[in-house]
Each structure stands twice: as structure tokens, then as C-alpha cells.
């Protein structure tokens, strides 16, 4: 709905790929697209749905699945390394991704008014592949050292802005406790019952991790059906005008209900040695709620700093991962001090407290967005996104 002006947000190329363009979709249903797609067939916003799904799937494979694959295949890595000197699944996975990227992924930048200037792309497939990948600068925007320095400074300035600090404090809790749980899950599962664990074998521990996969898929389904519908519904009641803070209302359920409940179940299960399915239910809720929250917050911040989506994602990664990666250094002492049940209980209370800044943003977000450094704040508040006929 709202994209960076010089968008790199998953786009169209001049190559006629046959997936079906949708250049007439300047209004989709009752939602007005912002920015409005041009009449240029090369406009990224005139991209057919089929190709969007294909390219998004490939980018997901390339960017994220490798980490998940290592976790899912942890029992096979050593055996495969002894046989092949490399992990066979990793080699085959990487090879498939390379082929898919070469065949389907194209430069997604598109020259817009007052935005970055992108070189024209060859229309034929082979010349386009050569220009895109060998070495790739023939179709991409090249900013040089000056732009790289500006990007680094922008990350810092965005990170210390009030809206980023508020969202970052929230993500520290929502993501930090999830990373902590994920990092220490194997310890809790494989410790003996006498030590407060479940005495799982490595095979049982690996099977338990499917709980996290199911939670991730549940979060994706939730996001597909809820994350856009909630703000659009609120916008429709507000005469169809857009306000970035409408997005944040999709965070109530994961933040106030699911994450605290999941942490409570997980801690109670460890404290009282409840059935491992109770532990699985807690892990599922924590995984689901964390993955439900991150896209909403990042979309909100990207809409607050529309010209700097990459910088927003970079600085938010520090907020998201810092606590989780640091928790193994202090959680053992924490458990020894208050007990494992209260550790996760305190995490649940911290989660509720971290939602307070989000509530503040819901009410005072407009004023806080105006407080920025380096004049980086740029949003689309007030843009009409619901057609008058549908109000």
C-alpha cells in the first residue's frame, strides 16, 4: 500500500515474463494503491500476482530458509559431512536456489519522479541475465561512497528517533524472549528430569522443533488475513484517510494475549514438570506471536521513513537480536536466583510492559513522527486509500 518512492519492494522488470501484468490495477477492490501505478509496462507496481508469489518464494528460500534448514537438519549435518565433506542438503539447496535466482529474479528498482535513477534493462532474456548478474551494476543504481556513508549515518539517526526507540523497546521483548527460548530449548529438553529438564534424546529434541515451524506457519496465515485488514478497516471508518499508526492495532492479540500466555505456559511446564505437550503449546504461542509482531512493526517504521527501508531494517535487527543473543550469558544466573518458572513469568510481564510504548504511538504517533533527525521522516499520512464510493 505504501512503498518507498524509489521502490525496491519486489517489482517488475522490462522483461515480458508471461506471468500476467496488472497495469490497470490502480484501485484494487476498495483500496487505492499508493503510489499509483503508472501506465508503463515496466512499472514494478504493474506486476502480476503469480510472479509476485514466485519471486517472493525464491527470495525467501535464498534469504531465510538456510537458517531454518540448519536447525531442522541438525541431526544429519555431522553424518552428511563425514560422507560428503559438506552437508548434502545444504549443497542441493544452494544449487537449486542459484538456478531459481538466475532464471526468475530480476532487478526490482524502477525510476520514479524525484527518486533514484535506474539504468534501462535489456528486454531479451539472455542479455537481461548477463546485465543483471555479470556483474550486476549494469541495471542497478550505484550510489558510491557518499551514498554508503549517508546510509550508515541514516541508520544511526533512525535508530535514535522516538518512534524507532519505542518500537525497538517493544521488539527487544517480543523477539528477545523468543530468541532466548529458541537458543536454550535444546538444553531444557535434553537435561535430565532430575535437573529440571525432560530427558529427551537428540532425535526427540529435533522432532520437538517442528512446534516452532508450525508456529511460524500460523503466524504467516495470521499476517495474510489480519495485518492489512485491521488498518484498512480502521481507515475506512476514518473517512478513508491513511495514518501509519493504524497498522499498530494488529499487535493487540499477539502482545497482550499470546506472548504472555506462551511464556507463562513454557515457564510453568518447566517449573512443575508438566507434560511436554504443555511445553510445546507454550513454545508454539511464543513463536507465533513473535513472528506475528515483527512484520507489523517493520511496516510501520518503513512508512515513517519511506525513503530508507533498508536502513530501518538494519537498525531494527540490532533491537531484535541483541537481547536474545545475549541471554545465554545471564539466564543461568537468573534461573538460579528466582527459579525457571519466575524467569519466564517475568519475561511475560516485561512483554506487557513493552507494549506500553506501542499504545503511546497509537495515540501520539503523529507528534512523535515529527521528532526526527536529519529530516529523514517521510510518510503518507492523510492519503486517501479507500475510494469515496466505498465509504
TrEMBL record:
Protein name listed in UniProt: Putative transporter C1529,01
Membrane topology: Multi-pass membrane protein
Cellular compartments per GO CC: plasma membrane
Location relative to the cell: Membrane
Keywords of this entry: Membrane, Transmembrane, Transmembrane helix
Superkingdom, natural source: Eukaryota
Residue intervals passing through the bilayer: 53-71, 91-110, 156-179, 206-227, 248-270, 276-302, 314-335, 341-362
One GO MF term: transmembrane transporter activity
Organism in which the protein naturally occurs: Talaromyces islandicus (Penicillium islandicum)
Record InterPro entries: MFS_trans_sf
Keyword GTP-binding in annotation: no
Region named Disordered: 1-22
Amino acid at each position: 500500500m505504501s512503498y518507498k518512492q524509489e521502490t525496491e519492494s519486489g517489482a517488475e522488470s522490462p522483461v515480458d515474463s508471461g506471468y500476467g501484468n496488472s497495469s490497470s490495477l490502480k484501485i484494487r477492490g476498495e483500496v487505492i494503491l499508493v503510489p499509483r501505478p503508472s501506465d508503463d509496462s515496466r512499472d514494478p507496481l504493474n506486476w502480476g500476482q503469480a510472479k509476485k508469489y514466485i519471486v517472493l518464494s525464491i527470495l525467501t528460500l535464498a534469504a531465510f530458509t538456510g537458517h531454518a534448514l540448519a536447525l531442522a537438519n541438525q541431526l544429519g549435518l555431522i553424518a552428511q559431512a563425514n560422507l560428503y565433506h559438506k552437508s548434502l542438503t545444504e549443497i542441493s539447496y544452494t544449487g537449486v536456489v542459484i538456478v531459481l535466482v538466475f532464471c526468475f529474479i530480476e532487478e526490482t528498482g524502477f525510476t520514479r519522479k524525484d527518486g533514484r535513477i535506474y539504468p534501462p534493462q535489456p528486454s531479451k532474456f539472455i542479455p537481461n541475465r548477463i546485465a543483471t548478474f555479470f556483474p550486476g551494476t549494469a541495471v542497478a543504481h550505484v550510489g558510491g561512497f557518499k551514498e554508503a556513508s549517508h546510509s550508515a549515518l541514516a541508520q544511526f539517526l533512525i535508530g535514535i528517533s522516538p518512534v524507532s526507540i519505542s518500537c525497538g523497546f517493544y521488539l527487544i521483548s517480543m523477539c528477545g524472549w523468543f530468541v532466548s527460548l529458541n537458543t536454550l530449548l535444546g538444553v531444557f529438553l535434553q537435561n535430565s528430569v532430575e535437573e529440571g529438564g525432560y530427558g529427551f534424546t537428540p532425535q526427540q529434541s529435533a522432532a520437538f522443533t517442528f512446534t516452532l515451524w508450525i508456529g511460524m506457519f500460523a503466524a504467516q496465515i495470521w499476517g495474510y488475513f489480519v495485518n492489512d485488514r485491521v488498518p484498512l478497516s480502521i481507515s475506512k471508518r476514518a473517512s478513508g484517510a491513511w495514518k501509519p499508526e493504524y497498522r499498530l492495532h494488529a499487535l493487540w492479540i499477539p502482545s497482550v494475549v499470546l506472548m504472555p500466555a506462551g511464556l507463562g505456559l513454557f515457564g510453568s511446564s518447566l517449573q512443575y514438570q508438566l507434560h511436554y505437550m504443555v511445553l510445546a503449546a507454550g513454545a508454539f504461542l511464543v513463536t507465533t506471536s513473535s513472528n506475528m509482531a515483527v512484520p507489523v512493526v517493520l511496516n510501520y517504521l518503513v512508512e515513517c521513513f519511506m525513503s530508507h527501508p533498508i536502513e530501518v531494517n538494519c537498525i531494527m535487527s540490532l533491537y531484535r537480536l541483541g537481547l536474545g543473543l545475549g541471554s545465554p550469558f545471564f539466564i543461568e544466573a537468573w534461573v538460579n536466583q528466582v527459579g525457571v518458572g519466575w524467569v519466564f513469568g517475568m519475561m511475560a510481564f516485561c512483554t506487557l510492559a513493552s507494549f506500553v510504548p506501542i499504545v503511546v504511538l497509537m495515540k501520539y504517533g503523529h507528534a512523535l513522527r515529527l521528532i526526527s533527525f536529519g529530516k529523514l521522516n517521510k510518510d503518507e499520512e492523510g492519503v486517501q486509500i479507500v475510494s469515496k464510493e466505498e465509504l
